[in-house]
Write a structure and sequence with these properties.
- The chain is α/β, with parallel strands linked by helices.
- It folds into three domains: 6-139, Rossmann fold, CATH 3.40.50; 145-204, Helicase, Ruva Protein, domain 3, CATH 1.10.8; 213-343, Zinc Finger, Delta Prime, domain 3 (Up-down Bundle).
- It is built from 17 helices and five strands.
- Strands 2-3-4-1-5 form a five-stranded parallel beta sheet, sandwiched between helices.
- Helix 5 (95-103) links the parallel strand 3 (83-88) and strand 4 (110-115).
- The protein is globular, with a radius of gyration of 21 Å.
- The chain starts with 5 loop residues before the first helix and ends with a helix.
Length: 344
């Protein structure tokens, strides 16, 4: 069926309609994709901690065998009940070929949940879901004003903090790049405000103002450049300040997705790294341009794809094992730094 409208998504996340058990969650906001996929997994009635009930596949594995998804979806659970087949990660194969046979069947005892990146209108995977009566697509676009107001209400006003209209508008300008990152910033803001139940500009400037946003970009730029000091000092500091490991990994993934997109423009349009950075949308902060240009000229598409796959898997593991999140993030970022150094 056609993609759900924004007003329909919240209700579907809370109570997924069993008429559409094959679900595609996609979009440029990787944090929102992960958040919505997690909500769906929790709402479909399957024990996500049971390895016999919940099957996790990376996209490359699912795409390599066009019968794999179909076989998993129609396998009877060892102890009965529904099963969840969850597919995530990136692949250069055509995942749509493996999905089409599945979408021709009406699922009765399984849910198939696929996470994907930004799929343009007409993309094979997106089209397969939108044209099938047995599947549903859920788009995840960058947060806009109304969605951000709902997030502010959930994380601040819903927990007893007063946020007036002017302050909400001021706060919105520092949020919205990624759903999980925005939620994390709001939670840090609430922790910082503590017993002061009215959020002020001073609170916002201290926690989520320009300085903190640019600082995070600088950390990821340093990691992209293969600088070990960023790993030893800055990543540890961010985790100590309360940033969840999975959110840090997801923000890093978004950073490398941007690099991957710019690298793709360099190759498809045959332009220089500088031209790609200068033409980036949204624009790159001017202080970062020269450094990002140097990074982009050294990292290849293949390297960026290996890094993104590693970050995606680590983020998945950190969400599943939050007590090990810092160790998982540290190991992953070390591998990323070493990969980036090979390009230097």
């Amino acid at each position: 069926m056609p993609a759900l409208k924004p007003a329909e998504i919240g209700r579907f996340l809370e109570r997924p309609d069993p008429s559409w058990r094959a679900i595609l969650v996609y979009g440029p906001d990787s944090g929102l994709v992960s958040e919505r996929a997690d909500k769906l997994a929790a709402s479909c009635g399957v024990d996500t901690a049971d390895p016999f009930a919940t099957i996790r596949l990376d996209a490359d594995t699912a795409a390599a065998d066009r019968n794999r998804l179909l076989d998993e979806a129609f396998t009877i659970g060892m102890f009965g009940g529904d099963r969840l087949i969850r597919v995530s990660g990136q692949t250069r194969r055509n995942l749509a070929d493996a999905v089409k046979p599945l979408l021709q069947q009406k699922l009765e005892n399984a849910w198939v949940l696929i996470e994907a990146g930004d799929l343009k209108k007409g993309a094979a995977l997106r089209t397969a879901f939108e044209k099938s009566p047995n599947g549903v697509a859920i788009p995840c676009y960058l947060d806009e004003a109304r969605a951000l107001d709902e997030l502010i209400a959930e994380e601040l006003t819903g927990k007893g903090y007063a946020v007036n209209r002017e302050l909400a508008a001021y706060l919105r300008q520092f949020l919205g790049g990624d759903r999980l990152a925005s939620r994390n910033e709001l939670r840090k803001l609430a922790l910082y405000a503590g017993d002061e139940k009215e959020i002020t500009r001073e609170h916002v400037n201290a926690i989520v103002g320009d300085a903190s946003i640019i600082d995070l970009d600088e950390v990821f730029d340093s990691i992209s450049a293969g600088e070990m000091s960023a790993l030893e000092e800055e990543v540890g500091r961010l985790l100590e300040q309360g940033m969840a490991a999975d959110m840090l990994l997801l923000n890093a993934l978004r950073h490398f997705q941007t690099l991957h997109e710019l690298r793709g423009k360099m190759e498809s349009a045959r332009v220089s790294a500088k031209a790609a950075v200068d033409g980036a949308r949204p624009p790159v902060f001017w202080k970062r341009k020269d450094r990002l240009t140097r990074i982009l000229s050294k990292l290849s598409t293949a390297q960026l794809e290996r890094i993104m796959a590693r970050l995606h898997q680590a983020g998945f593991e950190a969400r599943a094992n939050p007590e090990l999140g810092a160790a998982i993030a540290g190991t992953c970022f070390l591998a990323v730094v070493l990969e980036a150094r090979q390009a230097s």
